[in-house]
Amino acid sequence: MIAAPPLPALTSPIGDGEIALREWRLSDSEQVAVACADEQIQLWIPVPSPYTLEDAREYISTRERERLEGRELGLAVTSVIDDATLLGSIGIVRPSLRDRRVEIGYWVAPGAPGRGVATRAVRLLAQWALRTLPVDRLELVVAVENEASCAVARAAGFDQEAVLRSYIIDRAGVHDAVVFARLR
């Protein structure tokens, strides 16, 4: 098996005047622990349950290794005004080097939904990925029942392509998934 090349690090935060995407800091741990214990995040994101401060520290401390091993680039989503207040998380997972495609995943912290945070973050990361990475295709794979994430995908300029039956298995059971894509 050929090792994946490292994913590039951000040289500076990516922003749009409202939100910023930046590297994780260990000081984000408490906010991550609170967010990932939230009922909505627990419903749609495969995080430990219960989610502890130690889980958050472990997650943050492994981001650089995951990036260097070419598996995942995980970023914090913050306000441009206060980059210490966590609004969410977003990342790129590289499922297939050969196919020149990556998947984007994200969650939004409690208190941030309904403010356009996820849509802005997905747009920013998609633009960065298409400029920076050797990929032709970006994907979002969302449970059909997760109407908010389906709306984010559409608003961020991704096209719905398919429904994958019985694709996501989580604590709540087995779900069909909608595949959204954006091409170079």
What's the topology here?
Elements: E1 14-15, E2 19-22, H1 29-36, H2 39-44, H3 53-68, E3 72-79, E4 86-96, E5 101-108, H4 117-132, E6 137-143, H5 147-155, E7 159-170, E8 173-183
Parallel strand pairs: 5-6
Antiparallel strand pairs: 1-2, 2-3, 3-4, 4-5, 6-8, 7-8
Can you give a write-up of this model?
The protein has five helices and eight strands; from the N terminus they run E-E-H-H-H-E-E-E-H-E-H-E-E. Helices cover 30% and strands 34% of the residues. With 184 residues, the chain is of the alpha+beta class. The mean pLDDT is 93. Helix 1 (29-36) packs across helix 3 (53-68). It has a domain at 15-136: 3-Layer(aba) Sandwich (Aminopeptidase). The chain is globular, with a radius of gyration of 16 Å. It has an eight-stranded mixed sheet, with helices on both faces. The protein has helices at residues 29-36, 39-44, 53-68, 117-132, 147-155, and strands at 14-15, 19-22, 72-79, 86-96, 101-108, 137-143, 159-170, 173-183. The two termini are 27 Å apart. A hairpin with a 4-residue loop joins strand 4 (86-96) and strand 5.
